[in-house]
Amino acid sequence: MIPSQMLKGTLEGSILAIISVQDSYGYEISRQLEKFGFGNISEGTIYPLLLRLEKNGLILATYRESGKGPKRKYYQLSDSGKNELKQFFDSFEELYKAVHQLLKYLGEDNQ
Amino acid sequence: MNSKTKKLLHENNEFEKNLNDMNKKSLTDIVVYLRGCNISEYHQEEVRKDIMQMVADGEARNENMKSVIGDDFKQFCDEIVNAFPPRSKKEKILVAFSEAFSLSSLMLGIWLAGGILEAVLKKTTFSALFLTLGDVINGLLIVTIAIGIVNFVCKTSFKPVKKSNRIKSFLVTWVVLFLIFASIFLISHFLTFNLVSIPTIGVVLLIVGLLAVSRFIDNVMI
């Protein structure tokens, strides 16, 4: 299980990545995250992040018909969201390389 | 409250009826908590709509609210509030003015109704509203206490009521209520100095004007 503190920094970027593939809504996003190995993340965790992304103009929300209840809120990536996603990938790659180097160094050191 | 918010509030009230009783209760706690938070009424209703959609979808999947939202509703609400950009100084001032105007019009309405009722009972004519120093102080006192009670209820909406504390709370409530009413009575009895008199038409225009400005600010603030 990924610790929540570690997830915090990557969840917003990962949500943007999921939405970049296809317009989606809260529950679907949480299931997608689970499918990719992020663990069981409730909609209650996702919703405030979606709200922040929306208020910052990184995603756009549209209401569409759903089977039950009021129209469901679907999210799509905005142009600023696309730039933010690219920055997230660049930063994450940098972090990944750094951690990978560290692990490699520790591995060599142990041998 | 502006018309856009009223419309959404009405839609949400209608939809809430479809949720099961347990979810309705939890949702009420969430909404009450959000009412006391520093976000606009429209945003409160917008969030309420989204949460109800989540809960309704959860019901359709036979999931309870805790599995949809998580165990900590308060943290969920706090994260929602933090997701909104903080209000600027200008916005904070406008909100304060809107609330002050709205409350002032309410107090003027109460004083006007009280004055008319008194005139009817005494079979005299009501031509102007006379406000004593005691009336104004009591008005401020009532508004402050009302705001305090609302804030207390909102901030403690997730706190379970302990059975052992019920008697204590009951007694404290009655003592506090007695002190409040005694203060109001003493203030209105002793501070009878006439502060201002406003003709009836002036009071009506003032109420309408204050409400209009408050409504205008609410519309600007969405």
UniProtKB/TrEMBL annotation, chain A:
Domain Transcription regulator PadR N-terminal as annotated: residue spans: 15-87
Q: Where is the signal peptide?
A: none
Q: Which InterPro entries match?
A: Metal_resp_DNA-bind_regulator, Tscrpt_reg_PadR_N, WH-like_DNA-bd_sf, WH_DNA-bd_sf
Question: Which Gene3D superfamilies does the entry link to?
Answer: Winged helix-like DNA-binding domain superfamily/Winged helix DNA-binding domain (1.10.10.10)
Could you tell me what this protein is called? Answer: PadR family transcriptional regulator
From TrEMBL, chain B:
The question of whether Hydrolase is a record keyword is answered with no
What keywords sit in the KW lines? Answer: Membrane, Transmembrane, Transmembrane helix
Kindly give the SUPFAM superfamilies that the UniProt entry links to this protein: BH3980-like
Domain of life according to the entry: Bacteria
Where does the sequence pass through the membrane? 93-117, 137-158, 170-191, 197-217
Q: What's the protein called, per UniProt? A: DUF1129 family protein
